[in-house]
Amino acid sequence: MLDPHRLRVFRSVVASGSVQAAADNLGLTSSAVSQHVAALQRETGLTLFHRAGRGIVPTEAALALVERTDEVMSRWGELDQAVADLREGRSGRLAIGYFASAGAAWMPALVKRLTHEYPDLVLELVLTEAEARGSSTGRGPDIDLVIDPPDTPVRSGYRRIDLTTDPFVVIVPAGHPLIGQGPVSLSDLRRETWVSNDYPRSIGHRMVVAHCNAVGFRPRFTVQAQDHYTAIRFVEAGIGVSVLPGLAARDLPASVVRIPLAPPAPVRHLAALVRDDGTPDEAADRAVALLTDLIHHPRSHLR
């Protein structure tokens, strides 16, 4: 059985680039690092490094071992954390998955309130994507904030709680001719230069393009920003306009103006998937209750 400490030392040598750098990073002597690496080579029967000038270079076997032990070391780190939690009296853990705009708009206030009410609770916050949700353990989060239409089949082992709808808006640079005209239609943006604000395969991007296709045109994206906050900066610079979720357009610079979109316009349906394994989870239920209150009474959480 491989020694986890030796694996940590070996992985540090690969990441640091030398025995001495690893020793400095780990607070060990270079002799101790060399001994751990030599012992690991004997245990595995592998040649992990070879000489290159005055230094060493990891072999293909070493690089493969690093890759294969990523998950193992992650799990070992979680075990270390669990022991520390028990030692310090923290008995509960709650993993919450979230998407970027929810993270900026809701998560700081939620975490502040939840940790105040449950000081012994350990929170794991996981930025998740529509195509690859899950925590670092490979087990899905206890609560997963998702962008899903109401008719989406509920993931096995979870129950769904609808949170709110999030209509898309258009943001334009100050001085744009559309400002002051009230809600605009997507067809009013037909001749505009567009800035994308999400990955092409994301739910939001596909919704926007589908709605544009439905009114007879395809957006002319000249900038692939692929995240909301970079896209806002491109709009601020006068590069183009961007259609993005209202939740992502809450805090805009003064030189960017948000304009509502007239129907038919894309709308995100936001929900919380809560783990449902038959065991009551007071912290998870309270987190959802706080989140619901935060969404409907945002100013009450600013105090």
UniProtKB/TrEMBL annotation:
<keyword id="KW-0804">Transcription</keyword>
<dbReference type="Pfam" id="PF03466">
    <property type="entry name" value="LysR_substrate"/>
</dbReference>
<dbReference type="InterPro" id="IPR036390">
    <property type="entry name" value="WH_DNA-bd_sf"/>
</dbReference>
<keyword id="KW-0805">Transcription regulation</keyword>
<dbReference type="InterPro" id="IPR036388">
    <property type="entry name" value="WH-like_DNA-bd_sf"/>
</dbReference>
<comment type="similarity">
    <text>Belongs to the LysR transcriptional regulatory family.</text>
</comment>
<dbReference type="InterPro" id="IPR005119">
    <property type="entry name" value="LysR_subst-bd"/>
</dbReference>
<protein>
    <submittedName>
        <fullName>LysR family transcriptional regulator</fullName>
    </submittedName>
</protein>
<feature type="domain" description="HTH lysR-type">
    <location>
        <begin position="2"/>
        <end position="59"/>
    </location>
</feature>
<dbReference type="InterPro" id="IPR000847">
    <property type="entry name" value="LysR_HTH_N"/>
</dbReference>
<keyword id="KW-0238">DNA-binding</keyword>
<dbReference type="Pfam" id="PF00126">
    <property type="entry name" value="HTH_1"/>
</dbReference>
